[in-house]
Amino acid sequence: MAKRKISKKQQRIYRRRRIIALVLALLFLLACAGIIWGIGAGIHALREGSTQGDKATTSQEGSKAKDGKASRKESDGKKAAEKQRAANQTSGVKKCGPDDITLDLSAPDPTTGVGGSIDFTAAVQYKGTGSCLIDASDSGRVLVITSGEQNIWRSDSCPSKTRSLLMATGDKDVQTITWNADASQEQCQPDDNLPRVDAGSYSAQLVLKSNDKVKSQVVPVLVQ
């Protein structure tokens, strides 16, 4: 069989087709590489954005925590300053003595039944000059209920918080003390656990614990 002879013109056409095919294949490969690179760059950008967001969130949380600590420190500082001012105000102030105050006691309704109660009005009035400190709590100016020579009940039988008052000329402190017609025991007990007193006549008096010479008038009460 005779071998087909290709003209020079056809050879040039074939060469051009091969070149075009190679160029197209190269462009296709470049396009694929560009797409892959674009996808990778997008993923990297998303990761960077997420990392930056986490860093910003962490930074904000850290800032909030610092602000919270600073706020607590500021609050603690104010409380300490207030305590210091209160200490400075009372520093060097003398305690009230027997010549500085008077005690007054009254009972609007001095009669109750067995198991009832009587409300007393306890008043501390300053009569001195300058100023002085006094514990005006139920453990400082004490309500004492007696029957003859026997102590029946005291308002300081159970401890109470100190209630320090800075008294000055003209000051008067008035508080209500309730006696539930019961009898104190050697150890502090709730009123519900204390025994009720029998019907009879009793006496009430307000006494300054720091100086028992400072007393109010005696107020007779009746349990019937």
TrEMBL record:
The lineage of its organism: Bacteria, Bacillati, Actinomycetota, Actinomycetes, Bifidobacteriales. It comes from Bifidobacterium [indicum] DSM 20214 = LMG 11587. Residues 50-108 are annotated as: Disordered. Residues 50-62 have a biased composition (Polar residues). This is Uncharacterized protein. Residues 63-85 have a biased composition (Basic and acidic residues).
